[in-house]
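Hello again, I could really use a second opinion on something today. My current little project is about how a certain protein chain folds up. You're getting the sequence in one-letter code plus the fold written as tokens. Here's the protein in full, and shout if anything looks odd to you:
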Amino acid sequence: MVAAARHDAILRELELRGSLANAALASRLGVSQMTLRRDLLELELRGLLVRVHGGAISSSVAAQQERAGDRADRADRGARAASRPVATIGMIVPTANYYFPEVIRGASQAARELNCRLVVGATNYSPEEELRQAERLIAAGVDALMITPHDAMRDASPLQEVLAAARIPVVLVERTVDDRIAGRLEWVRSDHAYGAELAVRHLVAQGHRRIALGARQSATAAGLDEGYERVMAGLGAEGHRLRRVLSTPLVGENVAASQLSAFLDDCLIDGVTAAVVLGDADAMAFTDLVLERGIRIPEEFAVVAYDDEISELAAVPLTAVAPPKHELGHAALRLCFDRLRQAEGTPHTIVRMILLPALVVRESTERAH
């Protein structure tokens, strides 16, 4: 690590914690204690810290600036210190086009509030790319990392091994974790099972008992299945389930429309009167098909979308489950920052933060009174 990078790391450590210990920081930076002591001496000569026995502190920087006597130079140093981020936090997401833009905005807001720099990369759901980006950001020296893998984190996967070996805080965002490693990783995610329960219970309250769930294979679908089954099982013989897995079409193919049409056929054959559809685009296309067949929404058929990105813009504004995307990003970055501020060697409890989605009721489910 070059001297300028070491100096920046030292100053960020002092801004985060107010003090540092030579032995611990030298180990983290991968340099000898002699090299670190030379760095501290140079920074002290520049008026940026005060060396103490075994390390350095930052509490007397303001007093040193007052004694300097050069007001212009003091203002310049203060401006540079204020503009320097106290930490750089990496963020890896599967896509920056759908769902995750709001998660990124939440993280960005928290970064501004905490004077951190946020570095974002997207992987297009590629396991190879998420591994490459994780290795790149860690090697580049980010202070902490937030990551959303393409699927649940598995024990002994290449990505899991890279994250386990990283000597920085790592927070998973919007993903579950293999039980064998759950105790070693921290995460912030939505409770999608609860979100599905909200949707189905709302439909039941509207008088529906024959309810379908349509979703493409994804990390979210497993939670939807769990919540859907839980509510439908509670209906007993009174309820009727219809679950359809929709495949992901290639770009330019019209498979989605044909699959949604077949899904609607199955619903009508089974006497289903309401459906929950994962993804606003699929939910809107499904709604169009219902209307094209002369079926009235919501009088004869109700639709609930899951995601609520653009649901209100459907031909019939769609009732939708809205995961707390902005809050996810905000909470994940704050968790990373809290870990950075924690003194080395002090024990901490592994945090697993679950945020609850909300139901936004619109015209696709509520009959006019």
About this structure: The radius of gyration is 26 Å. The chain has a mean pLDDT of 88. The chain is about 45% helix and 20% strand.
